[in-house]
């Protein structure tokens, strides 16, 4: 165990990215955790320790990329898998196995949306800089906004319509609610013009977001310096040339 907190999150220190889906669940539930790469005293060293986990052949299973969660001496990666693991432990995945499966399915869809959004600014390769694929990024963004954004938002919205509730599982907040909240804000940040055109078109998502924005458990974190604002790193980035009225 790297430290004394119950959970330890390894993720890049300066971007919300996929780590934010995990942070939101940990924060909302008041879990005892440390965001290890953001510890002020050892930021650089801890990022190296994260990279060492990825290289360590003594760790099974092997891990491909952050976010990585450490709990009780074991490591877990893949954001949806981490949240599935945390969901029942943090009381954020309903009460039954069926609820847990619903949460995981929904979270995997959010992970797919995250990948597609990332592809808008990195359509050629994640190994290249944005600046090396700017032209293609405009085409990829046009296609995403034209063909995919409404399809995804309609899908998420429909789940809440069918449940007739503010929350995916009905009564209480589950981790995919928090992730959708984050994704919605990410889309508003990355594509303000396109999202403006969609104002009022996905009322259930908007109602989830406004409900959560009144929830003290979330607000304490949302307004704190622990939350990393969106920026031009990570999944949801703002680039003027990709901000299209489509
Ligand atoms: N499907 C994975 C994606 C993980 C991922 O792409 N992580 C990024 C940061 S958000 C990374 O550091 N990738 C390094 C790489 O792919 O080489 C998840 O949801 O956790």
From TrEMBL:
Residue intervals of the GST C-terminal domain: 103-242
Domain of life: Bacteria
UniProt keyword annotation of Transferase present: yes
GO molecular function: glutathione transferase activity
InterPro entries referenced in this protein's UniProt entry, alphabetically: Glutathione-S-Trfase_C-like, Glutathione-S-Trfase_C_sf, Glutathione_S-Trfase_N, GST_C, GST_superfamily, Thioredoxin-like_sf
Keyword match Transferase: yes
Keywords: Transferase
Residue ranges occupied by any GST N-terminal domain in the UniProt entry: 6-94
GO biological process per UniProt: glutathione metabolic process
Protein name: Glutathione S-transferase
Organism: Leptospira ognonensis
């Amino acid at each position: 165990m790297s430290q004394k907190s119950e959970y330890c999150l390894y993720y890049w220190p300066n971007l919300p990215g996929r780590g934010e889906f995990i942070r939101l669940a940990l924060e909302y539930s008041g879990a005892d955790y440390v965001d290890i790469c953001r510890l002020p005293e050892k930021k650089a060293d801890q990022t190296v320790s994260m990279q060492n986990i990825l290289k360590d052949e003594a760790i099974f299973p092997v891990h491909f990329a952050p976010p990585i969660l450490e709990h009780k001496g074991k490591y877990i990666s893949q954001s949806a898998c981490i949240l599935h693991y945390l969901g029942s432990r943090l009381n954020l995945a309903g009460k039954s196995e069926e609820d847990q499966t619903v949460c995981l399915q929904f979270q995997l869809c959010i992970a797919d949306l995250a990948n597609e959004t990332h592809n808008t600014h990195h359509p050629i390769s994640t190994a290249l800089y944005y600046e090396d694929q700017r032209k293609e990024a405009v085409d990829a963004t046009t296609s995403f906004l034209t063909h995919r954004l409404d399809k995804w938002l309609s899908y998420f919205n429909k789940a809440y319509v069918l449940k007739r509730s503010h929350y995916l599982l009905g009564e209480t907040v589950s981790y995919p609610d928090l992730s959708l909240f984050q994704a919605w804000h990410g889309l508003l940040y990355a594509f303000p013009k396109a999202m403006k055109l969609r104002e009022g078109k996905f009322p259930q998502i908007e109602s989830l977001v406004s409900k959560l924005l009144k929830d003290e458990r979330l607000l304490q974190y949302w307004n704190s310096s622990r939350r990393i604002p969106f920026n031009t790193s990570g999944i949801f980035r703002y680039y003027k040339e990709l901000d299209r009225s489509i």
